[in-house]
């Protein structure tokens, strides 16, 4: 194989130009190669050289790909504020995602008016096919450096929807759909990547999923209080997600220790959003501070990992 330090000279020798993010046609490369070989060069030597180039082109192209940050549910509120902050501080492509294309594109335009250049990708985390399609898209981009799972739902205190229905919808989106996101995107997280999730280590993922399902079932029969569950579907979903973050962080440490990926759960605080109301003390930009801090932890950092973070400080859990 041609060494990386000699690759540029090797490419020049056969007259193949390299452009950042180019799609290479091996037929063109083979044609250029044949012009460089003399009549005594064996077909076997030509084949091996082309195979070597294919391997090195793959390596070179991966290295040239831009870094990627993905923020779910980011067309408004804290998610939009996170995208804004990342566009200012992250050296790479920042993807604003939204289930509604029109709202997502309008959010991108609003940031464009501020001189920022996020990219848009339509993603509905409550649609497994949408997640799978997105995973394939970002795999083609070379993977993901930063993933912030911001998408979620909360019913207001004044909402008259039966509690059992609130519980089912809230847990489906805030816990199960986000778990699907993590299942399909964790393999795409690059070495040194960062994962933040808006909210005991001995519990397994399967046991946790069982507990979340049990809560939903108990609300349908009105027995959730008798079993010690609180009267807040949102709180249960976030507790479940924080615990899931601990489990997945432990798994990363075991299965990919050399990649130094940091995964944490965080709380933005009480923020003025559609879900939290206008009486909250924090602006969306202030609420974005902790998740952005976790997303931009410096290369080589080993902590925090598998922790619950609020106000940029690790909290007891």
TrEMBL record:
<dbReference type="InterPro" id="IPR036291">
    <property type="entry name" value="NAD(P)-bd_dom_sf"/>
</dbReference>
<dbReference type="InterPro" id="IPR020904">
    <property type="entry name" value="Sc_DH/Rdtase_CS"/>
</dbReference>
<keyword id="KW-0521">NADP</keyword>
<dbReference type="InterPro" id="IPR045313">
    <property type="entry name" value="CBR1-like"/>
</dbReference>
<comment type="similarity">
    <text>Belongs to the short-chain dehydrogenases/reductases (SDR) family.</text>
</comment>
<dbReference type="InterPro" id="IPR012674">
    <property type="entry name" value="Calycin"/>
</dbReference>
<keyword id="KW-0560">Oxidoreductase</keyword>
<dbReference type="InterPro" id="IPR002347">
    <property type="entry name" value="SDR_fam"/>
</dbReference>
<protein>
    <recommendedName>
        <fullName>carbonyl reductase (NADPH)</fullName>
        <ecNumber>1.1.1.184</ecNumber>
    </recommendedName>
</protein>
<dbReference type="GO" id="GO:0004090">
    <property type="term" value="F:carbonyl reductase (NADPH) activity"/>
</dbReference>
<dbReference type="Pfam" id="PF00106">
    <property type="entry name" value="adh_short"/>
</dbReference>
């Amino acid at each position: 194989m041609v060494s990386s330090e000699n690759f540029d000279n090797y490419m020049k020798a056969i007259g193949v130009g390299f452009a950042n993010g180019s799609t290479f046609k091996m037929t063109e490369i083979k044609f250029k190669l044949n012009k460089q070989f003399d009549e005594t060069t064996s077909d076997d030597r030509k084949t091996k050289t082309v195979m070597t180039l294919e391997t090195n082109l793959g390596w070179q192209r991966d290295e040239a790909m831009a870094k990627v940050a993905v923020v779910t549910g980011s067309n408004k509120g804290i998610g939009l504020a996170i995208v804004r902050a990342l566009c200012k501080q992250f050296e790479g492509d920042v993807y604003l995602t939204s289930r509604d294309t029109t709202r997502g594109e309008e959010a991108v335009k609003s940031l464009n008016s501020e001189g920022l250049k996020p990219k848009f990708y339509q993603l509905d985390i409550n649609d497994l096919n949408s997640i799978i399609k997105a995973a394939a898209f970002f795999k083609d981009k070379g993977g993901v450096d930063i993933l912030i799972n911001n998408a979620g739902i909360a019913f207001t205190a004044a909402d008259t929807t039966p509690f059992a229905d609130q519980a089912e919808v809230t847990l489906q989106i805030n816990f199960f759909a986000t778990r699907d996101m993590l299942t399909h995107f964790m393999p795409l997280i690059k070495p040194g990547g960062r994962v933040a999730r808006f909210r005991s280590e001995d519990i397994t993922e399967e046991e946790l999923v069982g507990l979340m399902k049990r809560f939903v079932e108990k609300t349908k029969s009105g027995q959730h209080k008798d079993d010690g569950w609180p009267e807040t579907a949102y709180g249960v979903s976030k507790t479940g997600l924080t615990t899931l973050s601990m489990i997945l962080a432990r798994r990363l440490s075991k299965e990919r220790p050399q990649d130094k990926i940091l995964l944490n759960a965080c709380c933005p605080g009480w923020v003025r959003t559609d879900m939290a109301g206008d009486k909250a003390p924090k602006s969306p930009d202030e609420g974005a501070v902790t998740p952005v801090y976790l997303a931009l932890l410096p290369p080589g950092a080993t902590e925090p990992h598998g922790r619950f973070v609020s106000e940029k400080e690790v909290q007891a859990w």
